[in-house]
């Protein structure tokens, strides 16, 4: 379980996260919604230890991300996919995916590469194993990024606006992959502006506003008039998103 308790984070005088309490259990698919600047991406970065907490605690399967001695174990429990791919440009798709299992898990290279090929095949990129990132479309690069995270066999997949840099067609490619992962039981916590996608595959919806958690509800309840839509700020946000 990912356990977030009383988490606060500030950058200078600006409070980005303010008293966040959240639990993500294995098997759940949880979307994080909110306007730009509401703290969504910062929360993901705090979970994987890329940002240090100012207040509160985060543990991943019991490992405290604030403890340097436990951070590596916490990171092995979760895989992160970023907005801008972050692939190594000098490595092929296959090499990008196989690197971490070889270096961190000490998986034999041949085994890691076989696993990488299987992952690429699962996202429709079997023929692109030897391509470098510059030779791939944005949607293809993001699918490689998802494979790279899955190669570590994480219990939790953290996704930070993974379609924000993609055009509509490429966005559809990536969302199809995430829908298949969700259907297969992959635990996911994802930041997104794809409202209908969140409605379709999420078990729960979390809504952040100015660093505060305004709602944490089952998906149907969040989109119901007596749930999240009963909150004027959430109604305003969803109305604006539907017009964009």
Automatic annotation (TrEMBL):
One of its GO terms (molecular function) is ATP binding. It is a peripheral membrane protein. It is found in: Cell membrane. SMART domains: AAA. SUPFAM superfamilies: P-loop containing nucleoside triphosphate hydrolases. Residues 2-235 form the ABC transporter domain. Signal peptide: none annotated. Its main location: membrane. Pfam families: ABC_tran. Keywords: Amino-acid transport, ATP-binding, Cell membrane, Membrane, Nucleotide-binding, Transport. Belongs to the ABC transporter superfamily. This is Amino acid ABC transporter ATP-binding protein.
């Amino acid at each position: 379980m990912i356990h977030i308790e009383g988490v606060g984070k500030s950058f200078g005088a600006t409070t980005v996260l303010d008293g966040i309490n959240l639990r993500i259990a294995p098997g759940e698919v949880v979307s994080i919604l909110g306007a730009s600047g509401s703290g969504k991406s910062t929360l993901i970065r705090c979970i994987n230890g890329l940002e240090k907490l100012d207040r509160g605690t985060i543990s991943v399967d019991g490992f405290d991300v604030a403890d340097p001695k436990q951070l590596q174990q916490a990171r092995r429990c979760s895989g992160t996919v970023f907005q801008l791919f972050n692939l190594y440009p000098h490595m092929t798709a296959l090499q990008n995916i196989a690197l971490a299992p070889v270096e961190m898990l000490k998986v034999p290279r041949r085994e890691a590469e076989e696993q990488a090929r299987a992952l690429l095949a699962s996202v429709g990129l079997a023929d692109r194993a030897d391509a470098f990132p510059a030779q791939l479309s944005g949607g293809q690069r993001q699918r490689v990024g998802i494979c790279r995270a899955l190669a570590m066999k994480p219990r939790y997949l953290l996704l930070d606006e993974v379609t924000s840099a993609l055009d509509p067609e490429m966005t559809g490619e990536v969302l199809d992959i995430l829908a298949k992962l969700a259907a297969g039981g992959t635990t996911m916590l994802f930041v997104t502006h794809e409202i209908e996608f969140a409605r379709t595959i999420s078990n729960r919806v979390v809504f952040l506003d100015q660093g505060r958690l305004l709602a944490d509800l089952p998906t149907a309840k969040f989109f119901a008039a007596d749930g999240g839509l009963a909150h004027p700020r959430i109604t305003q946000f969803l109305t604006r998103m539907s017009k964009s």
